[in-house]
Amino acid sequence: MTAGWVVKFNPPKVVNFKSPLTDQDDLDQQKASRATQKLAGSGVTLTPRDVSWDAWAAAHPDEERDLVLSCVDNNEARHAIQRTMPGVILSASTSGMRAQVVAFERRPGEACLRCRNPVEAIASDEVVISRLRAQDAATRARLAVDQGIHPDDLERYLNDPQKHCGLISGETLQRFGHGSGERAWSVGFVSVMAGVMLAAEYVRRSLGVPAHRLSGSGNLARFQFWFPDSSLNTTCHWPQAADCVCTRPSYRAAVAAHPWP
Ligand SMILES: [Zn+2]
Fold first, then answer.
1. What is the pLDDT of residues 224-260, one digit of tens each?
2. What is the ipTM of this complex?
3. Which residues surround ligand 1, an ion (CB under 5 A)?
4. Residues 7 and 81: beta-carbon distance below 8 Å
5. Ligand 1: centre distance to CA 117 (Å)
6. How remote is the CA of residue 102 from the centroid of ligand 1, in Å?
7. Domain 2-118+184-257 has CATH 3.60.70.12
């Protein structure tokens, strides 16, 4: 099996226990090459690229990127991947106790990896509160569950933040301010779950099982560990963001001219 390209961003400075391919011997080593060495003879073929994604893409501007697995942990890197316009991006990510995989397919009207993954500065508490108040109740409930907070507590806090300041700490509130929240904190086994979900989707596509793969209105699969029996643990839709570049007529025309597949 060919696993595809491996592109590293930085040599590891600390041991990352979420990565089974990284250990104490790999500090300051080239991550992609080390992964290739460790998987030698396993049946998985890797071609390492010990450069940044941007540098590799700039050196190969005409190379078609049919399928890209996005396993990065920040939105700057996600935007860099999307700029190269892959046919399909399978994006795995975590937010607190939630793991999710989204399939972004290059088709008119479909969301791209930039949608709802803004690159933004840390917002003030007042801005975070006003943003939460502007959301509908169902969205706020989902965001609360993602952060391990009972939705009723979040509603009471938003009704009077000063009176109920004990319900939500400043640190917790800032986690809501990170948009996707992926930089706020993460847990090893949640990352492992995201990796398993991503691998399952990749294998499913590789085997040609179209009836069950993520696509269109069911392009998102998520699982959060706070409430495992929650109805939120399901397959649903990651919609386009109205203010994203992918909604512009010029972008849609370009995608329509080169749709995937
Ligand atoms: Zn978009």
1. 898 888 888 889 999 999 999 999 999 999 899 888 8
2. 0.99
3. 112, 114-115, 244, 246
4. no
5. 9
6. 13
7. no
